[in-house]
Structures are given as C-alpha cells and as structure tokens.
Amino acid sequence: MSGNVIRTAPPHAGSTAYINARIVDPVANAEYLGAVLISDGRIADFGPNLFASGAPYGIQSVDCGGLYLAPGIVDARVHTGEPGEEHKETLESAGIAAAAGGITSMVLLPDNDPPFDDASLIEFVARRARQIKLTNMYAYAALTVGLEGQHLSEMGLLAEAGALAFTDADHAIGNAQVLRRALYYAKAFDALIIHLPQEPTLSGGNMTSGEMATRMGLSGSPPLAEVMLVERDIRLVEMTGGRLHLTKISTAESVKAIAAAKARGLRITCDTAPAYFALNDLAVGDYRTFGKLMPPLRSESDRLAVVQGLADGTIDTIVSDHRPQDQDSKRVPFAQALPGGIGLETLLPVSLDLVHNRQLTLPQLFRRLSTAPAALLNLPGGKLAKGAPADLVVFDTDYAYKIDRDDLWSKTKNSPFDERPVQGRVMATIVAGRTIYREDSFADKAAAA
Amino acid sequence: MTKNSAGVPRLPHLLGIEGLSPETISGLLDLSETYIDQNRSIDKRRDKLAGRTVINLFFENSTRTRTSFEVAAKRLGSDVINMDVATSSVKKGETLLDTAMTLNAMRPDAIVVRHAESGAVNLLSQKVNCTVINAGDGQHEHPTQALLDALAIRRRLGSLQGLLVAICGDIMHSRVARSNIHLLQIMGARVRVVGPPTLMPTDIDRMGVEVHYNMRTGLKDVDIVMMLRLQTERMQGSFVPSISEYFRFYGLDHEKLKFAKPNALVMHPGPMNRGVEIDSEVADDLDRSIIHEQVEMGVAVRMACLDALIGGQRNSMGVTI
Q1: Against a cut of 0.90, is the pTM above it?
Q2: Minimum CA–CA partner of B139 in chain A
Q3: Which of B50, B62, B175, B264 has the fewest Cβ atoms surrounding its Cβ within 10 A?
C-alpha cells in the first residue's frame, strides 16, 4: 500500500479519456458508470454514454476498472508552517500530503508568522504554489491586523491580491463591534468573512466540559461557548446584511441555531471537520494530546447532531482543519500541548464513513467536500462541467486498512485518527488534467496517461 | 497479575485510585497496618528494600508529601534521592520527558512524581521502565493520600463499608477529592461533595456522588467530614467573593459540625488554612479531629506502596518476581 507523488508531469495537452469509472456528479446528484474526456486540462465531456463502446482510436485512455471518479476535493481550511514554522510543515510538504489525499485545491489560513495581513503574503502563497506544481493553493487574509481582533485589515487590497475570504483563523472575535464593522465593510467588496464561534472568555479550557474533564482533572470549555457566539453572529448578519461562514461547528445547539437562521433566509453558511463527526471526547482519554483540538472534541450527542447537520444540509462543507504540530508541541502534559491535528490525507477516508453508514450518499458527500466549498469561494473547480478544470480524484471505497501515522506524507504525524480502521483510499489525484498522485496498484491502468 | 509477599496484586505503577479493585486497596491497607507498629517501635528501620533506589521527583513544592515518601523509603532500607527541581535543568528548558529519560538511565527502581499538570505522571510512566508512583498530578489524582485517609478511617471505625462521607470545599481544584471519591465508593462508602457551585466541577454527580451547596444539608448525618484546602494558587479569576464570606458559609466550625453525626470524625489533607476552611477549635479538637493520625498513616501507607510495587525478588532481566 503505497503511492507516488508526481511533480514532473508537464501541463496536460491533447485528449485523455477516463473510462469505465463510477462517476460521482454532485451537481446532478447522480452516480453512474461512464467516462470523462479531458482536453488540454479541462473537462471536455462526461456522461454515462460517453465511450460506452470504448475510447476512439488515437485518444489516450485510462481504464478506471470500476473505481469511483469525482471532482477533486476543495479543502477550505489548511494551516501549514510556512512561513514561520517550516519545521512543522512547508507549503511543499502540505502540497504533497494534499495530493495523496485527493485534494486538488486547498485554502490556507492566515495565522502564520507573519500573519497574512499584507498583500505580499497572499502573493507569496500563489508564487510558491506555481513552483510546487501540485495541488492548487489559495489563501485567506487576516480579518484583523495581526489577528489581534482590533483593527480591520486592508480587505480591499488583500482581495485584489487574491485573498479568497477574511478570517482570524482559530482566534474568535470576542468584540461584537469589531465583527459588526467587518461585516459592514466587507459588503463593499462582497467579501466573505469566516469566523470560528467560540466565546473567548469561556473557551480557554483544555477539553470539553463534562464528566470526562472532571474525571481527568482538566479544565473544561463548555459547549455553550460555541452557540453563544453563533447566536450573536446570526444577529450581526441580520443587522448588517453581510456574508458570514461559521467554521468548525461542533455542537448540537449550534447546528440547531444555524438551521433556524438559514430558514429565515440569512446569508450564513458553515462547515465542520472530520474530528467533529467521527470522534468524541473519549478520544482524549489517557491524556492523548493528538485529540486536543480547537474547538475541543465534544460529547457523543454533539457528534451525532453534527452528523445529522451534514445529512440534512445545515452544514454546507467539510474541511480537513489540517494543523501540524511537532513532538515538542504534543509530547508534553495535556494542558501544555498545542491544539490541532493533521487531516489532509485522512479527510476522504474518514468522511467516507458517512457513506458507509448510509448517512450521506457519495454525491452528497462530494457536494460538501468539493462543490459547495468551491462555490462559496468562487473557485473554478469542485464540479463536473464542460469547460471546468479537470481537477479529479479517483478512489476506491472498498479498500480497508488502519490509518498509521507513519504512513502519512505530512511532515508531522499528529493525527487524531491514528490507528483508526477506515474503508476507502485515494487511487489517483488529477489537477488540470495532470496526474499528481497515483497509488501503485492503479499505476498500471493509468500508465497511458 | 502476580502477587507479592504481602498478597497484594502486583501493579506496574500507582498512577491513581480509579480502576483499582477492592482487593488491591484492602491488600495495601492490610500491608500498611504492619508498618504502623514498626514505625512506633524504637528500631524503625528494616532492609526490605535494601539496594533499591527511589527518586523523589517533585515539580511542585511539597514538604509534607515529599518528606513522608522519603521517610517511608528510608525505613525500608532504600536509597532515596530528592530531585530539587527548582535548581535542576527543568528550569533551563529541559522537558518533562527529557528529565524522565535522564533519570531512567540512572536505573532507579521507583520514581515518585508530583507535577502541576493533570496527566503528567501518566505521560512520564509511559516513557520510563521503572515503577512510577503518583504523588499528585494537577487536579487529577493523589492516590496515596486517599489510601492514608482510608487507613485512618478504617482504624477508627473498623470498615469503610456503608459509611457516609462528606468531602467539603474546593472540589474543583482538588486531586485529593477525586482520589477519595474513587476509593470511598470502591470500598462501599457513600460520598457527598459540599461546596459553592463555582468550586464544583461540571457533571461531578456522574461520578456517583451527591452534590450539596450548603453545609447544613451536606453534613447531615455524615460519619466523616473531610475538609479540603481552598487552593487559591490554582484559581484564575474569582471563584468566591472573599475569605471571610467563604469561612462564614463553608468553613468548618463547631456550629456546622453539629449537623453531622454526634461522633463524626474530621479530616484534612493539610496544609490547613486555619480560619479559611477550618476553625482552629475544630482542627485541634482531639475528640473529633484525626488530622495528625492522617499524617502518621501517610508514612505507613507509602511504605506499603513501595513494598508492594518494588519489593520482592528480581530476576536477571530486572523484572520483579
């Protein structure tokens, strides 16, 4: 079980057909056996009847052997250590991990050192992505200068430089006046604001409040620290008419509040991460610091509510929330450990649990992983459409194995899913027609490409 | 699980009370009894642990517990090294695990650890190949304190079974409270926790205890009143408005003690804040307070723990048999 990241492939030219694939079309909400034709890096055609009797002579063809093919994942929440903490993760090592994870576009958080509150840093990410030649990379800009929650960043200039949205990453904006002004000001550019709703004065604990925290003698962050800010933010959106995306929703009460706000027609969207629909606070038992995340892992009933929110569409998108931490940050007493877990390579296999458990269909899952985040951020990928970039992922939903942190490509190994049995594996990742990652067992079939 | 000479099931470490069996606890208490007589005789020293090395590694200041462990180890003939962490390389930035690995390389038989963070002792135990004894980790557990409390109660009242015990005061910041809740319930006692709501940890009732916010109902008909120290040093922000208000409503004086059973015993793990959580008249009342017996039991219990964990013979691989 191993694969290769391919960085030398030239830009895609000519035509390539991926035939005999189970196509997942999240826009049409359909799943069928068919083919996709790529021309010069873009999707030229696709459908159940395309090349039903084999690809025409002269076109390169890849027989997918009945594996699934879907729009590549658009991961809208990734932190790397570059610039500032390159020993944890570089844009290059993150690009490699993303390629192995079926991610064809990723968006970087601005909480680096220095933080992305200056246009030059947004341009820096774009330049590095062109050099690395793997997954597409974009960046968010800081919502406030220095991520300090006080003064608005230069939203207009940053947007011109290519910032996709504005966020203070894992720092919540405690001051309602600052967020109110930001939502108002962003309207001038129709800019999206992404906010982590955790009331700062209540969310300083080491894990979620409750019996586990009490038994372990750790300070707790109550789940209501989340819904308090969700409810405040809903009022601010109502007042300002701004566009707000709430991130890492982890509690039942938040899901309920957001569903009600959407029903009232407010411009609010939200995401969650695999940790919040696949794990609960038992995962930090025995003081396991890999399970220390922000927000903290919640109770089983909150986890079930997040799954329900994904199933009924209250939660729009799934993000990896990739946050590398080295041993010095994790092999310390729990209270001293830094929060965060890596997630690029486990995003698809862990999310496929939702399909295996019949909580989502494959097209519904890829709507949350690919189509919806691309639409939210106005990115060209994330869907099967004629003329769209040929950003695709080929995967096997039957492949069963145990996640082993030492098998992961990421520079640090702090996966909260280490040793978890999963079913599903990326076989190939294709960006603009170029294959950037290929599992060995798929290599023979794809050799022609 | 093998048994040692005293018939106590062999444990690799003593990290906490949670999960111990009633047999293990009874075995440790029985073994402790044998050391009380030794400690009261003129010749206090035996060589049961001769040749063994015990390191006291205290990351948090402690005079009482460290001295108690030191006396216990020496009375069994063990060599004892006290790591003064204030002057060690920990202050120079060495991590907990580096310290653990360094000490481990000196091949001690046991490391007795106190640390300000919950779970730090568990972490350390995973990285060394000697026995680790938890002498208090953050707000998590303090197992030898619970054992010595149990021994003091058992010697006065014969058994823990069926007793009603009130643990009062700063429950939230107390590892003593957590270890005692586990131990008392394992041994068949019923436990109440009494204190202001701000010092009650979330969902503490799910640990099987009754929660009371006032001393009148909390102490009603109890056999034992365990007072806890108000741990102002662990408090970030305001949990109680003032010391005088705290003493008025939660400090144990004879007035409040009247709610308990007529002969109810009073305990405190020390060090006491007189006039904060306990009135001197109660603390020094020899008919009710067994606070000094607790200290005496502490040495015997720690001798028993060391004996049970690192006593006995060893094979050539260093494994105790």
Answers
A1: yes
A2: A217
A3: B50
